[in-house]
Amino acid sequence: MNKKAVEWLYQQLPELVDQGVLPAESAERIRKYYGPVDGNTGTRTFLVIFGVIGALLVGLGIILILAHNWAQLSKLNRLAVSLSLLVAAQVLAGGVLWFKRDSTAWREGAATLLMLMVGAAMALVGQTYHLVEDADVFLLTWMLLSLPVVYLLNSASVAILYTVGITFWAGSHYGLSKQWVWGLLGVVLPHYWGLLKHNRYANTTAISWWVLTVCFYICFTVAFSNYLAGLGFLVFSALFSVTYLSGELGFISPDQGRRLPFTAVGLAGSIGLTFILTFNEVWRNVALAWSSVLPAAWVIAAVLLVLVAAGTVRLIKNRKREAGKFAALPWVVGLAYLIQSYDHSGLGATLVLNVYMLGLSISLIAQGVREFHLGIVNLGMIMLAALIVARFFDIDVSFVVRGVIFVLLGIGFLAANVVLVRRKAGWKNEK
Amino acid sequence: MKNKRLLLCLFIVVSLLQAAVPLYMAWRWEDILQTGHRFYWQTAPVDPADAFKGRYVDLRFKEDTAPIIGADNLILGQQVYALIAENAGGQAYISGVSVNRPEQGYYVKVRAYAKGPGTAYVNLPFTRYYLPENLAPAAENAYRERAGKTGVAAVRIKDGYGVIEQLYIGEQTLYEFLRQPQ
């Protein structure tokens, strides 16, 4: 039960008792059952956010002041300055660990400052000796030295900074050693998992997982982009489906997962990719020679497709069939690839994707009407409109194909309208 | 309580490690500065900025190609050893590039970014000289105005690593040059 609902219920209770709807004992029992509403979470969240932002500003300010390059300071003095800043931040963090471990604001603030000071100390030494370390060596050392702080001080802000740092590291890296990024992300995963397990509804958890999901997609793209030649669309459609399915399956009611990124990222990605793949131009550039696909790409695609299949089966078992239509995308893309291998013009594949997007938007509109959910109806309508507009401006497709697609669209639209009108009539009769 | 103690002990270990890294870095480079062999390099600088470390003069060295010594089995991007020598005028140059660590003489660990027939193009690792931010633009102007004349970098080299000790414009150090009335 979410907090806002409980608050609302508590506001209603006195009035219900006054009106004689509820006996006073029942109202008391309700209060006992749900327990006190913690009204201070808002203030606490603000304290944490301001603590972290304050620490970030102070830390970055110190780094900027050091970057002035004080010519007056001897080398020894510079070393002393950077080390004393680091030690001060360590003493503060140690003190928080010992005396204030229960205060989230203190923990996050001190941990953030410590992380920045570790970077500042290394940067100042580098500046003193005019070093040109590779940016990625500096970043990696800094991140690895900061990682224990995540667990020792249980700090979400340092975990977020670490995740972003590792993503930058992967982006500035070349060659096979990029794959280390999975290990580097893996070591911080227990922290994220713990957030999800113990603190599912906290703002911190939602923000952390948003950052992790976005960074994961960037790392995935960076790490595998060289191997996906030819299978990229299939792999990414499967990845979006896996993300979407984990959002749908991980939570008992949709409200619980609403603030977490899985469903949103999975949906946005799936719909966006579907729309891109309805353009014939895209498929004509997928000149797929099966022999040129690397084994690595097959393995990645196979693993993701197995996950999609398993997720879809569970979805059907959980009676959430409505959600299955988005998870169908990888199979549709796979079918389009198969057609593409026989028909290199890309027309077949384009047609398959257009039919899928048309079906998807119509089925969304129908679902929205069935569930009286205006948001879903609008989503379906927007997708349908986008599809129609895009096809109208596809100059490259021959008139015949355009004509056929438009006719199909028109028939689909009319059919949807007929169905909706009939259903509406049905509701009225029931009323 | 026991748990808390353990956490604090772990934290102290991590803290020591965090402090050891910059200390070790400082010790290593200071040692090269004190005991390395001094070379003079011809340079051609420009002036950008690093978000973390402030402004620096970006040094480009005129000599960045050298013959490949030994077998021509050099892979691009691979770490190789650049042998450093002095010509008759006392200027440093790269006398050769080798895949294996040289037995004698001075050398720097570098990466080969391109190669021609029998020669390799390498990036020397000491291409920055950090300056106080108010001096950096003046330094850049000084180099621009004296386009015909290039600066010289004094570099200390030891065990495959190099540290810039000083920048010269003509006979003066960069600081002396910037302090005199322009």
TrEMBL record, chain A:
Domain DUF2157: 15-158
Residues spanning the membrane: 46-67, 79-99, 105-125, 137-170, 176-195, 207-225, 231-252, 264-283, 295-316, 323-340, 346-365, 372-393, 399-421
Keyword terms, alphabetized: Membrane, Transmembrane, Transmembrane helix
Signal sequence coordinates: none
Record-given protein name: DUF2157 domain-containing protein
UniProtKB/TrEMBL annotation, chain B:
Source organism superkingdom: Bacteria
Name the UniProt record assigns to this protein: GDYXXLXY protein
Lineage: Bacteria, Bacillati, Bacillota, Negativicutes, Selenomonadales
